[in-house]
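Hi, here's the filled form for the chain we discussed.

Project: internal
Contact: R.S.
Residues: 275
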Amino acid sequence: MNRLSLDNIASHHPDSLAFQTSTQKITYHQLSGRVRATVEVLRKDNVTKGQYVGLIAENSIETIVTIYALWQIGAIVCLFNRRWPQSMIDDTCTNTGCRLIDIVKNESAQAVNSVQDIVYKNDNYATVIFTSGSTGKPKGVVHTFGNHLYSALGSNENIPLTNNDRWLLSLPIYHVGGLSILFRALIAGATVVIADKQRSLSEIIIQEEITHCSLVPTQFLRLMEEAEHNMYTSLKALLVGGASISKKLIATAIRFHLPVLTTYGMTEMASQVTT
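And the returned structure, exactly as it came back:
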């Protein structure tokens, strides 16, 4: 089975939740249908195979559907930080030959039978992800499907993930740490719960029975501040990375019996290097 084939995942886990927000739930079967419908919309807008297409990425089902649809066409997805000024986005598009498109908000769940599921070959280009720019101007890193696939397989081997698990997406998908969650979940048929700003991480973890979570130290600190008043009993893995983490904070997590895992990754390495 092609491990990154959305149609194959949908056939094996049609009723499993693929994505959930505070207002929406979408199964893998419904996701497959919406992606197919969005492919038709994008093709009518002259999006073609091999084209570099820019998205101002939001953590939303609409954005993710559009990403999957672009991959199905064979386009390479360039993910822009939504906080970038428009002038920076325009310059990046000019320098990379990237075409910027609006997110396709297609609510149809009707499958379009004429569209075939893409074969995600390992050497096909999939994404351009920009570095944080901590050492200068952000640079675009091109990843193949193989890069994302083997990063996700390595993560899932080290941190088991099943179709009954629920990974909280609280990192932006224009960063490799956020985007990599989509690949891990797709391979396992797991649910991605998209965090919303109206609820704290603590509330979401408890109310949505989150099993896996990836946080930066600032988010981790906020979670620990509420730990004495809450029991995060559903958690199986709590990844913390992106910056240095104090020993005191780690000790607090251990004291509350939380499954904390310190992790280090790089954009150039398609996420985790060591965990």
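Let me know if anything looks off before we file it.
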